[in-house]
Input
Amino acid sequence: MKIAAAIFALVTLLTGCASLPTPKPNAPLPLKVVGTKILNSQGKLVLLRGVNTASLEWTSDGQGHILNTISNAIQDWHVNIIRLPLSQDRWFGKAPEQKDGGVAYRQLVRQIVDTCATNKCYIILDLHWSDCNEWGGNIGQHSMPDQNSVAFWKDFAPVYANHPAVLFDLYNEPHDVSWEVWLHGGRITDKPNGRRAGTPRTFEAVGMQELLDTVRATGAKNVVIAGGLDWAYDFSGILAGHQLADPHGHGVIYANHCYDNKHDSVATWIASMERASAKLPVIVSEFGGNSGPSRVVPADNWLLSVLQALHDHQWSWTAWDLHPAAGPTLISDWNYTPTARFGVYVKQALTDTPPAVR
Output
């Protein structure tokens, strides 16, 4: 009986580990949220600074560049975190171009996570594109998550549960709903991303609390990121009582996406960030724009002022985006040449300190 039990235990161990990535010896230390701070497992404060690496939301193969992009971000841009946008449909192989049930896509995501982990780089796995409950037929950026988003996290979270390098971003840029719907869900008429054609659909949206609960029900305690409303620009409802409850995990970081198309001065944005960061752990998980006079009147040098504020306040950030066609772009070509009015300044901030505001 002891031999049989030993064999059963061995088989269970081997099959149970098959779906879980094996953390590498030189992976970064696990993270947790304590109060408003992001700490590692040694209790040390962690400042996360990096880039977004788009394309796996709109393609199933990263356009053949994604692995090079990840390596370049780590080795040449010296990031310690990457935010990787993903598509729930492509994870399951539902996109029209996929014929393998998503096998190649899932393997590619695994390669990216392993590359980050073996280089002591954290990675935010971001549910960026959804489908309004219409598998394969409505893939894009939508107002809120749906029941297929719940299916995604049920399947996805166990694969990277408690991986020391991995953070989960529940849903990219919720918008045009109430804070009650943001938290608990409800029936909505979707407002598609204005930069892409799309017919509004009415569907039952899932709230951010349900997505978090879905992740935690899998046993995944990974730090989770959640963006507020107005395309993750607005913290007001979170500060007014709509925080996520996370008694069984390593905490929630609240995301801000900061672009100069909001027409706010940098001073206005800083004041909002200061109010939020006094009470919440925060990360600016997208920002972008050009150096020089901004769209705000009176004009300020929006980009350099934002970079200076990120540095002065020690706020974590990931700039958008290390892709020459995902604007605002950090690079101008697939040689990863930094753009003159944006990328050069972000790369400098990653390797040194931001340039003085002029």
